[in-house]
Design brief:
Keywords: Coiled coil, Membrane, Transmembrane, Transmembrane helix. This is Endolytic transglycosylase MltG. The protein is mainly alpha-helical and about 150 residues long. About 60% of the residues lie in helices and about 10% in strands. The radius of gyration is 37 Å and the shape is elongated.
Length: about 150
């Protein structure tokens, strides 16, 4: 078996480089691009197609914005005011059960966990509270604790 010499490799790379340069020069001076001449009617037709696409997209965006506004109105309509009473000496479990029975909270355990995370289990203040439903846990906790 014959050893490959440095001279042989340099000739090989030189040939590959010359081939690449030659092919680039051929494609540069002889491009394969077809140019089209459009008539006035074809130009107007293409223009109307593009405008129709833009109008459809803008209508879709308007519909999405209108749907968002409708959802916001529905959310505002769904807001209910509820009066909730916490009596003096009531246990935390009783308060959470009352909130759950009036559908102020969705899950007893997650609300209790949220109270523990914020370290306010012993800071609940008794009294009557006006609550707007739906309300998230943090806002509810802010209303019923001693500040």
């Amino acid at each position: 078996m014959k050893k490959i010499r440095v001279w042989d490799l340099s000739i090989l790379f030189l040939g590959i480089g010359i081939g690449i340069i030659l092919s680039v020069a051929i494609f540069y001076y002889n491009p394969v691009v077809k140019y089209r001449d459009y008539s006035d009617d074809q130009i107007v037709e293409k223009y109307t197609e593009i405008k129709l696409k833009e109008q459809r997209e803008s209508e879709k965006n308007n519909n999405k914005n209108n749907n968002k506004k409708d959802e916001e109105k529905n959310i505002e309509d769904d807001i209910k005011k509820l009066e909730f009473n916490i009596e003096k000496g009531q246990s935390l479990d009783t308060i959470i059960d009352n909130l759950y029975s009036k559908k102020v909270i969705d899950n007893k355990e997650s609300f209790l966990d949220r109270l523990k995370v914020r370290e306010v289990t012993g800071k609940i203040q008794y009294g009557t509270y006006n609550i707007e439903l739906p309300i998230d846990y943090d806002d509810l906790i802010d209303k019923i604790i001693i500040k």
